[in-house]
Amino acid sequence: MNLPLKIAAFVALVAIIVLVGQSLVKKDQQEDIEPRDRIVKRMDIEQSVYGAGVLRCSSRAEIASRVPGKIRAEDVLVDEGEAVQASQALCKITNEKMEKNLHEAKENHEIAQYRHDVSKEEYEFAKKMREEHEEPSEKEVQRLKMELKSKAVDLKKAEEAVTALKEKVAFLTVKSPLAGTVLRSHLKRSELRLDPEKVYGEGTPLFIVGDLTSLAIYGTILESDWSKVEEGDAAMVQCGKKQGLPAKVTVLPLIPSAASEGTRYDIQLDFENPPSGLNEGLTVNFRIIVEKKTNVLAVPVEYVQVEGGRHWVKRVVGKKATRVPIEVGISNYSFYEVTRGLKEKDTIRWDAE
């Protein structure tokens, strides 16, 4: 076959492919725009408000050091994700000066106690001798009485010093204030080993402990939706692969959230049955059911045209489709409730128009 014939054959093949392709596209387009009829039925319909937020434990504690000191790697007693009991030790802080001060305070207290006891014996003996033998003098008895009061003041100060230092030394053992899970540990053993002599100041963040059974949703909704929501409204929550988790609105503030972008309102929802496998900090989406109606006429939103605030559908009678107005009630992303203009078992049509 010479070159011109080959070129002609190639052009003919391309033309056939193009024609076949156009035919298939045209067929698909015809199928796409083919009118679809639907029978109007009764059904249950819900109107919802949508929002997003994060999971957070309602019962939680951010634990910081209450005294300064060193923290050794081996003195970190728990890891992230570990369950702990109330009053369980989480870590130990070393403060040798504080412990030395407590030891000295206890010695001073023992001395003050001894001096007080001796002064008390002297006063009581002098008082008794004065009553029985009029010796020593009344002036001496009063002097011993005043000395006893002074020793009592010294003893009280010594007791207070010991009590105050005992409270501080007790803070060297950091304990969990509640039963729950260690959500976060700011103490990394690898870092502590690098600088074991580092002194951590009072107020250093150490742990976050939370009760995962108290997980709640802290989120926001649009201002336009706020007036539709009430405390106690049921909701459905989606978190990752977990969907349809039942919850309810528990906190609905009266003012917008200043921290949110735009005008949004903070909102809190609590799970009806706290699910397992969730953790604080996970993001969630939620749907609050603000109104629910049962056994009402409803039509899909794609069958409804909205013009000038009025709603229209194409009703089919026989072979003729006529555009008729309808009145609607509640709605969601999928359906409109129809309150007037259609009746059950009417046929409506969707088409490309």
Would you mind describing this structure in some detail?
With 353 residues, this protein is of the alpha+beta class. It folds into 3 domains: 47-57 and 212-350, Elongation Factor Tu (Ef-tu), domain 3; 60-93 and 173-210, OB fold (Dihydrolipoamide Acetyltransferase, E2P) (Beta Barrel); 96-171. 31% of the residues lie in helices and 38% in strands. The chain is built from 5 helices and 20 strands. The strands form 4 sheets. The protein has a 6-stranded antiparallel barrel with strand order 2-11-14-13-12-15. Strands 3-10-8-5 form a 4-stranded antiparallel β-sheet, with no helix packed on it. A hairpin with a 2-residue loop joins strand 17 (310-317) and strand 18 (320-331). The two termini are 53 Å apart.
Mean pLDDT across residues: 89
Provide the CATH top-level class of the largest domain: Mainly Beta
Provide the gyration radius in Å: 40 Å
For the record, the count of structural domains works out to 3
Span of the ends, CA to CA = 53 Å
Query: What is the helix/strand order?
Result: HEEEEEEHHEEHEEEHEEEEEEEEE
CATH architecture identity of the largest domain? Beta Barrel
Please give the order of strands in the largest beta sheet. 2-11-14-13-12-15
The total of beta strands comes to 20
- Count helical runs: 5
Q: Given the helix and strand composition, which structural class is it?
A: alpha+beta
Helix percent band: 25-40%
Report the principal-axis shape: elongated
Sequence stretches where pLDDT stays below 50 over 5 or more residues:
none
CATH topology group of the largest domain = Elongation Factor Tu (Ef-tu), domain 3
Describe the main β-sheet briefly: 6 strands, antiparallel, barrel
Oligomer: single chain
CATH superfamily of the largest domain: Efflux pump adaptor protein, beta barrel domain
Q: What proportion of the residues form beta strands (DSSP E)?
A: 35-45%
